[in-house]
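User: I'll paste a sequence; please echo it back and then give the predicted structure.

Assistant: Echoing your sequence first, then the prediction.
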Amino acid sequence: MDEHSKKLSWLVALLSSAMAALSVLVYVFWRPFEGTRFGELILHAIPEALVVFCTFPVVYFAFTSRGIYLHESQKVNLDELAKAVASQVADLNSGSISYAPTPSPEHMKRIEAEVAKIGAAAVANNSGKHVVPHLGRKRDMLIVVDVQKDFFDGGKLPVVDTLSLLPLINDAIEKAEKEGALIVYAQDWHPPNHKSFKSEGGAWPPHCLEGSDGAKLHPDLKIPSSYETFHFGTDPSKEGYSPFENNDLVQLVCDENIGDVFVCGIATEYCVLATCIEAKRLGKTTAIIETLVRSAEPEKQAESLGLFDQHRIHRYKESPWA
C-alpha cells in the first residue's frame, strides 16, 4: 500500500469513528429516555454507533470498487495504470516484446492447428514469402538436405547406406516437430546444363533434374503438418552445393524467431557441409547431427567430420530433441 492509500485509510477510519461518536452524543443529549441514562446507552446508542462504524467503510469501498472516488488522485493513478497496460498490450501486438501467458492445452491445440495452416499455405502459394509463426520463444530449425530418390539405390547418384538413414531422420523430424522446431527440406533441382554435370565439365553424372522423378523426396521420408521446401542448384552457372543459393531460405533462417540450426541428410562432405557453413555465416549457431548424415565416400567419414571442426560447427552424435 502506497503512502496516499495509507493516509486515505486512516481518514476513513477517523470519519467512521467520528460518525459513531456523533450518533452516541445525539442519542444521549437529545433523545428522551426512560430509566438510567447508562442503561439506555447500552441498549440503544452503542449498537447504533456500531452499525454506523461498520457501514461507512463498507459503503466507501463499494463506491471505489465501481470507479466512484472520494479523492480525484485515486482516479488519476488508475488512469496511469490503464495507460501502462495499454502500452504493454500494444508492444505485445507489435512483437517488440515476446511475453505471453501460458495457454491451456486446448488453446495450444488450436494454435498448433493455425500454425499448420500457415505453413501449408506458405508452401502452396510458393510466393517466396515465408512466415515463421511466433511461439513465444525462438524456434530451432532442422534442415533436411537432399533426401531425394536419386541419392538412393536405383537413383542416378546413389550414396551408400542411405536406406538406414530414413527411420532415423523420420524419428528426429517427429520429435523436432513436437518441440516446435521448423522443418525445412532442401532439394537439388538442377537444369540439364548444370555446370556440375560431367557433360558440362563437372564431376557428377546428371542427377535431380528439375521436375524429374529422381528429384522427388524419398517416398518414405516423413513430411510433417507444417514445413518449408526450398530448391537449389537451379542456376546452371553455380556449383549448387548450398541451399542458401536460394535467397528465400536466407531470409527465413535470418528471421528473428529462428534460433539454432541443425542439419542432416546427404552428403556429409558436400551439401551438408555447405549448408552448415552458410548457416553459421548468417549468424546462427549451427550443428550437424552425425547419425543423420551419409557420406559420398564413407571411408573418409572421419576426415569429413574434421572439416566441421575447422569451420567451428557443432557436432551432435544424436538428435537433440528428446
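The chain is about 45% helix and 10% strand. The chain has two domains: 3-94, 105-316.
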